[in-house]
Every structure is written in structure tokens, then in C-alpha cells.
Amino acid sequence: MTGPAVPFSRDDALTVAASRCLRNGQVCFVGIGLPSTAANLARRTHAPDLVLVYESGTLGSKPTRLPLSIGDGELADTADSVISVPEVFNYWLQPGRVDVGFLGGAQVDRFANINSTVIGDYAAPKVRLPGAGGAPEIAASCREVVIMLRQTPRAFVERVDFVSSVGFGAGAGDRERLGLRGAGPQTVVTDHCIMRPDPETCELMLTALQPGVSLDDAVAAAGWALRVADQVETLTPPDGDELAALRALQATVAAPSGHAA
Amino acid sequence: MTGPAVPFSRDDALTVAASRCLRNGQVCFVGIGLPSTAANLARRTHAPDLVLVYESGTLGSKPTRLPLSIGDGELADTADSVISVPEVFNYWLQPGRVDVGFLGGAQVDRFANINSTVIGDYAAPKVRLPGAGGAPEIAASCREVVIMLRQTPRAFVERVDFVSSVGFGAGAGDRERLGLRGAGPQTVVTDHCIMRPDPETCELMLTALQPGVSLDDAVAAAGWALRVADQVETLTPPDGDELAALRALQATVAAPSGHAA
Amino acid sequence: MTNITTLAEAVAELVSDGDTIALEGFTHLIPVAAGHEIIRQHRRELTVVRMTPDVVYDQLIGAGCVAKMIFSWGGNPGVGSLHRFRDAVEHGWPRPLEIEEHSHAGMANRYAAGASGLPFAVLRGYRGTDLVAHTATIATVTCPFTGEELTAVPAINPDVSVIHAQQADRAGNVMMWGITGVQKEAVLAAHRALVTVEEIVDELHPRPGGVVLPSWALSHVAHVPGGAHPSYAQGYSTRDNAYYTAWDEISKDRDRFCEWIDTHVHAASAAGVGE
Amino acid sequence: MTNITTLAEAVAELVSDGDTIALEGFTHLIPVAAGHEIIRQHRRELTVVRMTPDVVYDQLIGAGCVAKMIFSWGGNPGVGSLHRFRDAVEHGWPRPLEIEEHSHAGMANRYAAGASGLPFAVLRGYRGTDLVAHTATIATVTCPFTGEELTAVPAINPDVSVIHAQQADRAGNVMMWGITGVQKEAVLAAHRALVTVEEIVDELHPRPGGVVLPSWALSHVAHVPGGAHPSYAQGYSTRDNAYYTAWDEISKDRDRFCEWIDTHVHAASAAGVGE
Fold it and tell me: CB under 8 Å to C30, separation ≥6 — which residues?
């Protein structure tokens, strides 16, 4: 946290805050996109021994550039082991060997349930999204889950249109009732704030603000009456090292594809 | 079948007769011991493209010497692919991809059931045998089974003391009732004769005699009143090529272990 | 034993209207050329299965080959939506698309059960999700030892599975390496299997991470260099990320899509892939 | 992360009286030295699990460490019977041995279920055999989609699994190759896992057929060159077939067996294996 302030975007703040959720030595199941950027940033800053597991079957990947897809050859080339997709889900994810599941989505609701399936009615959708992919079992089986998503009232809703992956269902006790073994989404990181589940009710509460974001703005950017914790801290801004590492990571993406269009 | 007669033992006749049951290009699940010798003999004589599968997880092994155990390094070194033991049973044996299962045992009964578990009572055994190993599912799932065993009235019994692997159970219709997919033991090769199941009753019937064995001797060497088919042929004796290949195979065994005894 | 044939012959022989087919690949080794050949041969009423349907399934759907899709994640990886898939689901164009939607864990286990000759697989999955209410092929099963209730999904046994691999030998044994996804399971679960390969070699040399499929587990092998483009074949090609990006624009518009299919699929021949 | 320790420390820390332990290996890579260390440390009332219990389990049984054995084939491969096992089952010497007997397919699936965090596995197995009547851990389960009845076996989750591998790196990641049997499943099914290795290397280089177990899936790694003797470690040693043959005579006689254990196990130290 030393050095002069460096300019950063909202996405930078989101990515850096998410990367800080990962501790060195943890095993992290990584989705592609922002979660992958945040996890790889953590590996290049405070968590060099973070173990990255991708659902394509790479255990312990140490990519030198940001993978563009879950099946990027870089992930296989740098992995401790490449295994089959059934094995990654059955032998590694399902028994609870993974510490942190890192997920995004299209919608997140008050109880941290995730929708990545459909906006509107399932049978006659307004927007058909790609679908759940690996997320339902990642959300169920990892010891804990970190959700990261840009915050708008359309993305953060009272009740998701479709529960693709369970956070806390309808509230306290639901995970236990459903037999979901992990602790669920303990942290939701947005470009406005950090939310954590109320230990009693499991409802998401704003617990920290991104630097430069007001409490009113952060609450207004949720589609429900977002509760605010008694103590709200403001996150330390991304420091120079973090931003330099992030820029270096981002710079690796454009290179391999000749014309990025 | 050319050349002058070459002397051969009862075991030679048994092994050669069993090897002749295998056709070129078939996929054969091989147990260690006599079945492995017979299968490797077939590969070196009339069935060079016989595919050998061993339960240790070697697909398409082409051993240059007789393996001494199911997990002989030679089987891995010469395999098309080495896979895990769960995979060999689940992905390769269980779905019925294997043409022929080649089994031995301590006892075989009138309906070709195999005992490799115990002589006497299970709870207070006279002789505790090694156990079923891979045989129950080999006997169930291979398209057909060949049993090979030296014939004595103690080994060929009316009813096995313990059904380790099902041949035809109590008779016709039992395999279907049990949901066993393969056709079961279509051939039992002994040092006295060949037995095949009666198409109606599934009871084993003597259908061919080993060369130099009388019908009376063969029937007397079974512990039940062995039925005899209307037509009984006498097997062609092992020819010079077969015996030469068998001797060459057997010669590979002693070599790797310094002192054989 | 395997039949080494041309792609056109293999598809003509193996794929019929109404079949359930799986063209598997996990970003790596996607059998795109085989998908184009299926479009060229005007197959219809297909049920297509894949964990991660991407551009080639978008093309099959837009070309009207597909009646139903069984899947767990349908998108353009790293880019966004599949517009032909969305158009079919949202507006029924060019025909309505029935969907059967699972999670990755469920799909992987469905293939594994299919490869194992079992009618179903057991997993910890789907509990609490809305997939349970919308997908008929999710059920429960009770452990006979502990009484615990678990999720069951039925085996997938495609009529035809198609994969792309790096090498085959002249006897038709196949080897792939790098990320090999669920391809072995897809092949072993299928009634018939086609493998397109980058290269036919005299001998397969074992490699780290290499997965070998013996010829006796396959129906046909076809020599189709570049057959995974725009995806990649590790050791032979790199991913054409620009193609995926460009597809977003091409596929947004029905006319532009149709023109693209006419030019790049129908007017092209299977041989044009590089044979 | 893994703890690289001596064999004696690892066994002392991981194995307690009454534990369920699996020393897996399929002819290849059998963790014999670890078995001897368990005998030396006088562990008692163990339940020992293995698909193919062979000489080292005969030694554990004869030494009185074992209350129960869960297995599918117990013999001296290529030689014949296990005389200490038979003596325990047939005559209760040195103590009665409870057995829980399965088939290979069942045991492999029990480990796989254990590794998968499931309470049971489904297979086509055992139907019509007398194992069903004598083994309580064989049940049936009905497919919720087809109504078909299949066999269910419960997961095995040993307190400790022990395997032998060729190499570990200094961080405790392990690699084995050649016939690797059910060892990955045995390790992943266990609450605690110990791997003895032939060599500690600076870096693991991927190999054809190589199976890597990352350090975070293991409890302890111990450097025990020759730790699989008389079985073998591909690339490091060959099988000592004469030992297996000689064991037949040694183990036939109770006194001779006891003398052998005193001389070759108790009087030897773990270090004597080659560290």
C-alpha cells in the first residue's frame, strides 16, 4: 500500500478487491472472465502459491498470460496435471477439496443466488443466457464461494429469475436442508462495494465500500433495499504494485490473437 | 497341422486347445496363469492381432515374454494404453466391449459356474482360496467366456461349494433372469476334453476329446455324470508350430527371475 | 476395426436424420469440419449433445439441422452469446429448438454412465436450483447404505459421437493430448464414433497426457487437417480468436448468417478443409 | 501442503490402532516398506483394505496387526496361497480375521465412490454369485429412469491410504507411472494419505502415463528408495520374483514366519530400506 496514488477504473477496483479475497496456498476453482483475471492477479501479487483449478481439467495451472477460454492451451501447458472433465468434477470438486469457488453471473439476488440461465420466463425467455455450466456444483461444493459482478439494479435483484446456482436459497438453513456442503458465498465483490451474508439470516449486507463510492450510490445500485452493516469500512485503493501486475496481465491477452476486432 | 508328430504333455494340449478358441482380431480379457499363456500363444500363432486386455489396466498389451503377474511391467511397456483399474472395469469390461473372457478357477460345475473362493463352508472353510478377483464381472460382461482348467473329479463337481462367477446358474434362463449380458461360458477346455453347454438346458456336455484320451477316462474325470454329445470329435494334436511357439513362450518366464525356485 | 475414410463418406455412413449426435470438445479439439459436413449433407431433426455448445452448434442450429439440444453451457467462449441459439430459443428461427439443460457435472456424469454401460449416474448436484423443475432428466436416488438422497441423471448414449484428435496410426488407433475434456467418455458412450485427425502417422508414440482410443472402439477415422478450426489442436494449430470475435457480428443477423453458411460451408467441400 | 518426513514419523503420525488403512498397489508399486513400519510400530486392530492383498498383507496378518480385511483377491501372485491369511481364516491364528469380500469391479468402484465424496457406487456386478449372501456391503438400487435394478456398493474411505510412487518434488507433489491401478482413487478416498517415493527430484517432468497427485491432496511424503521391494517401481527396480516364491515356504510355518518377521522387520529399521 505504498507509493503515490495511481488512477484506476471501477473494473480495476473490482478485480483487485476480488483478488484480495484469495489467500496464498488456497485451492481455487476459477471461471473464465473476471474471476480468472482476479485469480491470476492474486498469483502475481500476494498469493504466488495459489492453486488454480479450471473445469477443463487443469490442476495447478500457472498461466503466463490470461487465458481467453476455459480450455486455453496455456492452462494445460502450465498445469501440474491435466485430467478428464468427469474427473475434475467427481474426484476434485465434489468431495470438497477446493477451498474457493470464484463465480460470476448475470444476476445475483438478496440471498446470493446466481442466475446465469435466462432473463424472463424459462419457456419464453426475454434473454437466453449461456446457462449454468459448472457453477451449480462449484457453488455447492467449494468450501466457500466468492462472487464478483459489476453492480447495477438489473444485475442485483430481489429474487433472481432463475436459480442456476444456489447461494443461500430462501435464507438461513436452506443450504443445510439441501445438503450443500460448502459454506456458500461468503463474499460478493462488486465495483461499488463488498457484501457479506448476515450470519443470522444469510441476507447479503453491505460491509465495505469501494474507494470513491458513496454509501448512497452503492445502495442505489442494488435492486432491493440493500441492508448496511453497522460498521462499513472503505477498501484500500488498488496500490501501484497491484495495478502494475493487472496491466501486465491484461497486456498478455491481445497478443496471441492477430486481430482482436 | 503339418510335420512329424512332436511329443506334448496334457498341459500342452490344454493350452493349445484353449489358444485355438481365440480368433484373430478379437478382444480378450486375460487372467494370469494358464489363460495368459494360451492367449499369448494364440497371438504368436494364428491370431497375431488378438487384443489382450489385463485387469491391471493395460489395453492392447503385446508382451514379448510371458507376464508373471497381472501387473507385470512388460504389460504396461507394450500396451496401446495404460488406464486405471476403475476405468478398465467400468469403461471397457462392463459395457460389453470385450469379446472373450478367459478364466480359470478351482472348481467348475455342471452349469459352468466357477468357484475361486473357498472349499467347504464359507464361514469355516476347508481351504480358503484367493477369491473372485475380476472374474464375476468378466463372466457376466464378456460376449463369451472360455474356461480352462485341468480336469479332475475334485475340480469338476456337480455343484460348486461357492459360486464366485456365474456360468449358467441353475440352468437355462438364469443368465437372462440375472441380467447378465454376455453369452456365458461357451467353451470349457480341459486336459481331457472340451465341454460346451447344451443349447437347451445349458448343462455342460463333452463335445470333443483331447488326443489320446478315451471317452471313459474323460467322463470319469468329471465329478458328475458328464453327458456326452451325439457327435464327439477328437481334437487335432498340437502341431509343431504351436508347440515351438509354446516352448519359446515358456522359455521367457524363467529368465527375468534369477533363481526360479 | 476402424475404417479410415473421407469425412464425407464417414458422415454419410454414420449420421442420419433424427439421430442423437455429440460433437464433443472443450475449447480444444472441437470437430468443426465434421459439423460443417453434417450441414452440407442437409441432415435434419438432429438432437445435438454437448457440454459446451459453441460456434459450430450455433451454425448447425442456424442451418436448421437441429430439433433439440442437450447441453450445460451454450455460449461463444470469451465473446458472449450464441445468436443463432438465442434466435432459435427466443423466436423459433429457423425452427423451434427444444432444450434439455444440465450442469457440467451432470453432463460429464451422463457421458460417463453411458461409457460405463449403466443407465444412470449418481452425483451431488442440482440441489436447490431451478434446473430441477425444468429438466425432466434430473431425479433422485437413495443410498441403500446410508439413506442419503442424491441426484441421479440418465446415461447419454449418442447414436454418433464425433471428436477431433491430433493423430491416428494406419490401423486406426487414435491419440489426443492437451485438454481432452469429456471426449473419451463421449466416444465410449456412443453407438458409433467418428474421429477426425490432424495427421496419420506410422506409429503413435506415447506422450504425457496422451489419451489413446484403440481402433476397435471406433467406427471411422477421417484425415482432416485443420478440422478443429477455429478451435485448435495442441501441437498443430493455435486458436483463431478473431474468428470467434467475428462470429458475434456474422451471427447476429439472419441474412448475413445464411450468406456465411452458403459461402463457407455449402460452397466449400470437405476436401477444402485441408486434406 | 505436504509434509516430507521419514517413514517412521509419517506412520507414527498417521496410523493408529483400530484404523482402516489401505496399502494399495497392483503388483507394481506396492508400499511394502510402509507395511513393515506398521508392523514395527505394533499397530493393532487394523482393518486393512486392498483389492489384491499379497505378501505384505500376509505379513501384517501374521504379525497380528489385523482384525479385518476388505478385499477381492488375496493370493501370492504367480505362486499360490497366502498361508498367513489362510491360517487366520481357517484356524484363527494369531487371531481370528474378519473378512469382507468383494469383486475387483466392486472394490474399484468403492474406492472411486470414496474419492468422489459419494456414499455408494452403482455397477453391474455380483448378480447370481454367492458373494451377495455372504457380504453385507452388497445391495441393490433401482434406476429412477428405466426401473432397472443394479448393484450398489458403499464407498470406501480409509482413515489412511498408503501408496508407493517413483518421484516427488521438494514441494511434495508426487508422480507415478506404469501400472497405477487404483492408487489415485485410494489416496483421494482417504482421510489421510502417505506416499513413499523412490526419489525426490527438483522438478517433476510430465511423462507418458504419468499420474500426478498434487501436494495439497496428500498428508505426508517419505523418501523410501526400494520401498516397494519385492514388488517393483518401473524405471527404478524390477520385481524380485524369487522373494515371492521363497515366501511360500517361509509363510507355511508359523515359527519360521515369526523368525522371519523378527529378523527382517523388527530388527531392521525403516532407515535400512535405503534412505
Answer: C23, C54, C56, C164, C228, C231
Tell me what ipTM this predicted complex has.
0.96
Residue of chain B whose alpha carbon sits nearest to that of D82: B130
Give me the DSSP letters along D44-103: -SEEEEESS--HHHHHHHHTT-EEEEEES--SBTTTB--HHHHHHHHH--SS--EEEE--
State the average pLDDT for chain D: 96
Question: C-alpha grid cell for residue B236?
Answer: 487335432
End-to-end CA distance of chain A: 36
- Spatial neighbors of D9 by CB under 8 A, at least 6 apart, are D220, D222
Closest to B123 measured CA to CA, from D127, D130, D35: D130
**Which residue among B133, B136, B256 sits closest to D129, beta carbon to beta carbon?**
B136
Alpha helices per DSSP H over C104-214:
104-115, 131-134, 183-189
Residue-wise pLDDT for B128-173, tens only, equals: 999 999 999 999 999 999 999 999 999 999 999 999 999 999 999 9
- Residue whose entry in the numeric block shows the C-alpha cell 458472449: C80
Q: Which of the residues C118, C120, C205 would you substitute to probe the D interface, choosing the one with the greatest number of D C-beta atoms within 10 Å?
A: C120
CA angle centred on C167, ends C161 and C169, rounded to 5°: 100
Q: In the numeric block, which cell numbers belong to residue B230?
A: 451325439
Residue partners of D89: CB distance under 8 A and separation at least 6: B125, B128, D97, D99
Classify residue D132 by burial, with Cβ atoms within 10 Å: 0-12, 13-18, 19+: middle
Q: Among 2.60.40.10, 3.30.499.10, 3.40.1080.10, 3.40.140.10, name the CATH number for the domain at B10-251.
A: 3.40.1080.10
Beta bridge partners of B114: B108, B165
pLDDT at A74: 87
Query: Is residue B71's pLDDT more than 90?
Result: no
DSSP string covering C193-244: EEEEEEEEESSPPP-BT-EEE-GGG-SEEEE-TTTTTTSB-TTT----HHHH
Mean pLDDT of all residues belonging to chain C: 96
**Neighbour tally for C143: CB within 10 Å:** 19
What is the rounded CA–CA span in Å between residue B17 and residue B149? 11
Kind of pairing, strands B193-197 and B204-209? antiparallel
CB contact (8 A) between residue C216 and residue B80: no
Residues of A labelled catalytic: 55
Question: What is the value of pTM for the model shown?
Answer: 0.97
* Rounded Cα distance, C275 and C269, in Å: 10
Sheet containing strand A27-30, strands side by side: A81-82, A58-61, A51-54, A27-30, A100-103, A144-148, A185-189, A193-197, A204-209, A227-234
> CA dihedral in degrees (A244, A246, A248, A254; nearest 10)?
-150
Grid coordinates belonging to C221: 477415422
pLDDT band at A3, cuts 50/70/90? Answer: low
Greatest CA separation found in chain D?
A: 60
* Domains of chain D as residue ranges with CATH: 3-102+157-271 (3.40.1080.10), 104-154 (no CATH)
Q: How far apart are CA D167 and CA B17, in angstroms?
A: 45
Half-sphere exposure of B107 (CA within 13 A, CB side): 25
Chain C residues with CB under 8 Å of B94 CB are 116-118
Region of C25 on the Ramachandran plot (φ > 0 left; ψ -120 to 50 alpha; else beta): left
* Partner-chain contact D212 A81, CB within 8 Å: yes
Task: Give the Cα separation of B246 and C6 in Å (integer).
Answer: 42
Whether C178 and chain D come into contact, CB under 8 Å, resolves to no
What are the DSSP calls for C245-267, one per residue? HHHHHHHHSHHHHHHHHIIIIIS
Cα D107 to Cα C260: distance, rounded to the nearest angstrom: 54
Q: Does C137 touch chain D (CB under 8 A)?
A: yes
Closest CA to D103 of B91, B122, B118, B165: B165
**Closest C-alpha to C265, from C13, C15, C98, C58:** C58
Could you give the count of Cα atoms lying within 13 Å of A87 in the half-sphere of its Cβ?
22
